[in-house]
Amino acid sequence: MPGSVNDAPRRGSWGAGIIGGVIGSALTAAAIVFAAPHYLASRIVRQGMLADPQILPDTADALRDAQFVPALQANRSALETPFASSWKGAEKPEVTLVEFFDYACPYCKASNPSVDRLLAEDKGLRVVYRELPILGPDSVVSARLSLEASQAGRFTKFHDTLWATGRPSPETNAAAAQAAGIAPQPKDDPAIEAELKRNFQLAGQLGATGTPLFVIGNRVMNGAVGYDALKQAIEAARKRSS
Fold this sequence. Notes:
This protein is of the alpha+beta class. Helices cover 65% and strands 10% of the residues. The chain is built from eight helices and five strands; from the N terminus they run ααββαβααααββα. The protein has helices spanning 4-51, 55-80, 106-121, 137-151, 155-165, 170-180, 190-205, 227-241; strands spanning 87-89, 95-101, 125-131, 213-216, 219-222. α3 (106-121) links the parallel β2 (95-101) and β3. α5 (155-165) packs antiparallel against α6. It starts with a helix and ends with a helix.
């Protein structure tokens, strides 16, 4: 019959088109199903970051803290046990803040008001001071004299006087030594040299890039981070220990 032969291919093409469309749709749907978790996850992460940009620095802080956990766990006692009288604050602390410092460091000096404020506000806080003299020979002399004053039970007197007098020098070191009742030239003491060596080793394990270096609980912070950051770290450490 006329037209019957010509109609057959059109019916076959139409049928094949439907089948091909169904198969294509199925493949597309399958691709969406398998890709959806990754796509949705990335969308959720992106939307979360846009909604709360603090997520990024918080994540960076958590990753940074995690890398130092083994060193902190292995050296907790060495970090938080003061050398002689090189500490201020609570005799039986709830939280211990460790500060590695250099008397010649302007960032350490800038941090002193924040540390003193925290000590005044928080009666459960102890600050342990660890000498890390990295800024020249006068700093080394200051550190040795400070530790000598610490052995005599007069760390605070030397410490506060030197900060008030000025940058380490023969004159300022002598003034602080006089206030603490010790000689202006440090004596040769193996215990003091061992303490300095240990401090450098501990600071190195904690990734110190300079001073000050603060350690509070599992948080390691390099630099003059300010009152708010220190207070937040203290609160976090107190929560973990409670």
